[in-house]
Amino acid sequence: MYFDGSAFGNPGEADIGGVFRRRDGNISWVFSGPNGVASSTKAEILAALTGIRLARDGYSNFTIKGDSANGINWLAEPDSGPWSLAHYLTEVRDIPSTLNVHLGWISRELNTVVDGLAKAGVHRDYLFSDNSFPEDVEQRKRH
Fold first, then answer.
1. Which of 3, 33, 48, 62 is the most buried (most CB within 10 A)?
2. Where is the RNase H type-1 domain (predicted)?
3. Containing domain of residue 20, as a range?
4. Residue 107 to residue 120: CA distance in whole angstroms
5. In this structure, are strands 12-21 and 100-105 parallel, antiparallel, or unpaired?
6. What pLDDT score does 143 carry?
7. From the CB of residue 138, how many other CB atoms can be counted at a distance below 10 Å?
């Protein structure tokens, strides 16, 4: 699962996005949506948390990748991260205890599809979650 969060302002209007890929690289599920007002750091953690919540009902073994090195480190290391995110980080860390989860960092340049999903989320009134891209993101992928 690849995730990304962004905020327009810091803090500002925040949004999240994510993509689940099969081992062959094909996309099996996407999500994109608004996340209220948050810092970019909080948006990253909430994107990871949303993806894990979606994954726990259908996946037992998966990799989580994000382009925030701090976010990945905080998810991996107990008792790390800002105190203001402790509640979210604890939930993220507790969910994988029932799953086989691996964490990894990915460069921003390789995470552009998910970045597009996150940025499109600010224009939604709901969390989009489906096995295909929303039309607004699909059109951007073609250009």
1. 3
2. 1-123
3. 2-136
4. 20
5. unpaired
6. 40
7. 11
Question: Which pTM value belongs to this model?
Answer: 0.87
> 137 Cβ partners below 8 Å, 6+ apart?
30, 32, 116, 117, 120
Mean pLDDT, consecutive 10-residue segments, the chain of 143 residues?
A: 93 94 89 93 94 84 91 91 93 76 90 88 86 72 47
**CA geometry: angle at 38 spanning 33 and 100, to 5°?**
65
First to last CA, the chain: 24
Which CATH number does the domain housing residue 27 bear?
Answer: 3.30.420.10
In a domain, 21, yes or no: yes
Q: Does some domain include residue 143? A: no
> For residue 11, is the peptide bond before it cis, meaning its omega torsion is within 30 degrees of 0?
yes
Is 32 within 8 Å of 13 (Cβ atoms)?
no
Give me the number of domains the chain comprises.
1
CB 22 within 8 A of CB 1: no
Q: How far apart are CA 3 and CA 120, in angstroms?
A: 13
Residues 115, 116, 118, 120: what is their CA dihedral angle, to the nearest 10 degrees? 160
The residue assigned the tokens 């390789």 is 110
Q: pLDDT at position 142, please?
A: 47
Any domain includes 141 = no
